[in-house]
Design goal:
The chain is of the alpha/beta class. 41% of the residues lie in helices and 11% in strands. The protein has helices at residues 12-26, 40-46, 52-65, 77-88, 101-110, 129-136, 151-159; strands at residues 9-10, 74-75, 94-97, 119-122, 144-147, 167-170. The strands form three sheets. A two-stranded antiparallel sheet has the order 1-2. A two-stranded parallel sheet has the order 3-4. It has a two-stranded parallel sheet with strand order 5-6. Helix 5 links the parallel strand 3 and strand 4. Helix 1 (12-26) crosses helix 3 (52-65). The longest helix has 15 residues, at 12-26. It is globular.
Length: 182
């Protein structure tokens, strides 16, 4: 199982530029300074005076603008190479993401990764990814490796280890090295 944003593909720059330009188009006089990844939650926290309708307008505009910045995203080449090798050995890889469907499909197409995953699970942001993913896949005795940059998501997955003994968590994804000598 793998997460998409900042695990499989590094998206912070494109994401932040899309948000900054969305805010500028909706509120031309509002200054935005990104400290880390901009998200709907961070917009709500930093601009508490905005209404839900205004926030949704920013998010909608950001989603439309993101495609203009997709060229600024970067693939996690070692992780993608590992997944491609695993697929050659009939290993099923499942993409589990909070990403909006259209943006996920755009990113996968951009890097020609549409066929890499046996399944894609879109989990609402109101839920943790992996406990929900475990409910959507058949039980297996085979090892389940979870690649994610979000330590909280991995902690939630780890909580499932009491019932699933075959779950392995991988957070340090930039250090993955892949041998072509398998």
């Amino acid at each position: 199982m793998s997460d998409l944003d900042n695990t499989l593909i590094f998206t912070d720059l494109a994401n932040n530029l899309a948000y900054i330009n969305a805010i500028a188009s909706v509120f031309p006089d509002m200054a935005v300074h990104a400290h880390g990844r901009l998200t709907q939650d961070s917009i709500c926290q930093n601009f508490a005076h905005l209404t839900e309708q205004q926030i949704q307008k920013i998010v909608f505009t950001k989603q439309k603008l993101f495609s203009q910045y997709v060229h600024l995203t970067q693939p996690n080449t070692p992780l993608i190479a590992l997944f491609k090798q695993l697929v050659e050995f009939d290993t099923q890889i499942i993409l589990v993401t909070h990403c909006h469907t259209q943006r996920a499909e755009l990113l996968l197409r951009h890097f020609k990764l549409e066929t890499l995953f046996s399944q894609t699970l879109y989990i609402p942001k109101t839920n943790f990814k992996y406990p929900n993913a475990f409910l959507s896949i058949p039980q297996t005795e085979r090892p389940i490796f979870i690649f994610d940059d979000d330590i909280v998501e991995l902690q939630q997955a780890s909580a499932q280890k009491t019932t699933l003994k075959n779950v392995f968590l991988v957070n340090n994804i930039e250090k993955i090295q892949c041998s072509t000598d398998l």
